[in-house]
Amino acid sequence: MSKHDTIAAEGAVYYLFGATGDLARRKLFPALFSLYKEGKLAENFAVVGLARRPRTNEQFRADVHESIGEFCRYKADDAALWERFAEHFVYMSLDINNVDGFRELAALSKGLDEKFNIPGNRLFYLALAPNLFGPVSFNLRDGGLLESPGWNRLVIEKPFGYDLESARELNQQLSQVFEESEIYRIDHYLGKEMVQNIQVLRFSNAFFEPLWNNKHIANVQISLSETVGVEERGGYYDKSGALRDMVQNHMMQMLAMIAMEPPSRLHAEDLRDEKVKALRSLRPFDSAAEVNQHVIRGQYSEGANNDKPLSGYRQEDSVNPESTTETYFAARVYLDNFRWAGVPFYIRTGKRLPVKTTEVVIEFKNVPDNMLFAQRHDLAPNLLVIRVNPMEGIYIKINAKKPGVDNVVQPVSMEFCQSCMIGINTPEAYERLIYDAARGESTYFTRWDEVAEAWSFVDRIASAWREDSSTLQLYPAGSWGPASVDALLAADGFHWWPVNGQAEDNVIWISGGPK
């Protein structure tokens, strides 16, 4: 995108709390540089890096430059551009528990407003632990940071609480300082290109909406698989697990995007209203027995992937050797509303699986058995696959006559590969979300009632697991999870479809597909 078709965000001071942390280095600095290079950040902005450890402005800018060189899709090889960008970055060592430091920060901010002609707008990005969100918000208020003439926006990372009770307590703290409209809860999956493309696919194509219901769809499969283990996050992950780390946020959001009703207007609040309605329609698990019937929890043990030996979860650093924390989650869930009644949604996520992928499979109902071709052939169901990561695109499978052969029907696949068409240099999720927050566009941020509904659903599962830890099933690292995962679908007459990176047998690609 050129600067000529780009609208720059309104000038603001960006405060990066946790500026010496991994998130800032890997995601936030590269995102800001990409936005600046593409003209989405006007010249009247400033970035204040905030953390406890001491840094000079020069050291901080060197850290930013190194981060861009390692993680950004653009390189800082234009010296003049880099110098213009870097001069907007300053650093301040801050004890977030000392309100006097916030008063110093307010004085620094006034100087930046004057230097860069910023109209008093403030965007506070808290790349911190959730238990610090409340105290930092109070000190922002008491330190005078919210008294400028412009707008104030608070951007916070997941996890938003540990359960519904802690999330509600956290929200009560934030709401004493910020309005709900000023709070931007990031779920970076909502910044991914193909997740945002779901609503375009659904609501801008006339032939999808009439079929997007229980009369035509047999089941929906949402897979979010990772090949990595817990890496250096063992201490955090052992207190969280797949249910809180992935299901409560990423998977619930993707499910809501697929299941939601068409919004009455393309307005952020209308779209988020429909997502909340979808989450409210989730059938709750009323007992531990229901959880055990519909939910599978797993933990990876020793295994291998591509002949590379992999250690088990309990052997990872900072993990309890007797841990019962789940690294795998699969479930059959239902939405009790007019559109989706009776359609199973199968969701699964896990670590140390064979393929890294995120995708949604819509399996349509087959033609009636007494139809002409169904009488003679074992017809495969039609599929619509939305590929989110790492390949981005849309895959459709239909049945067609085999060329040159009478009475032979075969599956035929067509694919639109967005990442192939655009290439690797596509905007990262954090670029889109920071840009949206700077413009006050809240569509792809989670509202409090969305968070509450998701926690309400997963808390019942967590409660059942606390009652009975014996439901944990081990699976070899490098496999697709516990064997019972296949039985979950087989009981309904279905099976998991191959995901991104796995070949399908007896499928002919007619264009754009892998060779």
From TrEMBL:
Belongs to the glucose-6-phosphate dehydrogenase family. The active site is at H250. It catalyses: D-glucose 6-phosphate + NADP(+) = 6-phospho-D-glucono-1,5-lactone + NADPH + H(+). Residues 16-197 form the Glucose-6-phosphate dehydrogenase NAD-binding domain. The keyword NADP applies. Its EC number is 1.1.1.49. It comes from Paenibacillus taihuensis. This is Glucose-6-phosphate 1-dehydrogenase. Gene3D superfamilies: Dihydrodipicolinate Reductase, domain 2, NAD(P)-binding Rossmann-like Domain. Transmembrane segments: none annotated. Catalyzes the oxidation of glucose 6-phosphate to 6-phosphogluconolactone.
